[in-house]
Amino acid sequence: MLLQKRLRILIIILLSLLVINTFNSCSKDDDAIEPDKKEAPDKPIEDKDESTDGPTSEEGGITLYSVNGYDITKKTDYKVADNLLELQKDNQKHTEIWGLISKVIPNNYITFFNEYIVITGEESGIAGYVVQTTNDLTKWQIGIAIDLAYYGGFNRDGELSYTIIHEFGHVLTLNDTQVNSNKTENDCQNYFPGEGCAKEGSYINALFQNFWKDIHDEFQNIGDDESEKQAFYEKYETRFVTQYASTNPAEDIAESFTHFVIFDKPTGDTYANKKVQLFYNYPELIELRNHIRKSLNIGTKTKSTPVIKVWKRGSTFGKKGQKRS
Ligand SMILES: [Zn+2]
Fold it and tell me: What b/e readout covers 132-169, taking b as 16+ CB neighbours within 10 angstroms?
């Protein structure tokens, strides 16, 4: 029948459009957030029947929890778009994500966290971030994108595990035992990640002195142009475990730490290999690696290694109070 045939064609077109749209939102490799075209500019917020009365969050925040050890307590439900209300109400998912965070972070490090925020990552492509909540770098907030955490199923292919280990890597290397927040860049003889001055003997200073010092001037001359960043990566590809690691030394150490945790010890002699090997010089980091691997069943026959994450994360250049994605 003609009508049926037409209908079938229409359905195929609609499905194709849906697939293309989904693909675009997954592979967006641009930091720019497109303005929401769906919302009429003058529509008063009160018109949304179901929306919560909480404060708005500029950074995609859905629900904020305060953290005390491994316990979390809901602090704020942010005002969110209607399509996010279901995820906001889904406390079980919030708790399930926190459960995985708790598995990764051992008790001598969980004390560095005082906030956990559930965010949406669909638009920004940010799967997770951390940011200090106190200027002295003793307390941190961890944000995890709930939509990406459940994309294709909870922690599909271990991608959420990867994100959490990466974010933990930031706090591991930027907390107050590693970085002195009182020193300015001019006073700093060591690497200055932005949050403060890396202490002598800190992990990030070791990484910087060994593997970044010779290219840092060149790195600092890179502008915001994506093609320049790409060219820098391609020139020094063998130095980095992932392209994202070439964003800056802080991302490099978070990525290298994640590789240190999830993969076997590399035997090669590229800079990328050597960065991972560097962590084996610290007995407390080997202990940390063992803890996380045991906790997540990494390296056992039954559980596969988390995949290298594919979500694009916002690039950060480490100004004080800036998020580390
Ligand atoms: Zn990061």
Answer: bbeeebebbbbbbbbbbbbbeeebebbbbbbbbbbbbb
**CA–CA dist 168, 173 (Å, integer):** 9
CA separation for the pair 138, 35 (Å, rounded): 36
13: CA distance to ligand 1 center in Å?
39
Ligand 1 center to 18 CA (angstroms): 31
Q: Which of 144, 121, 51, 154 is nearest to 311 (CA)?
A: 121
CB 262 within 8 A of CB 162: yes
**Ligand 1 center to 245 CA (angstroms):** 8
pTM exceeds 0.85 = no
Greatest Cα-to-Cα distance within the chain, rounded to the nearest angstrom = 80
Which 3 state secondary structure label does DSSP give 64? strand
Going from the Cα of 307 to the center of ligand 1, the distance in angstroms, rounded, reads: 16
91 pLDDT higher than 60:
yes
With tokens 């070439």, the residue in question is 246
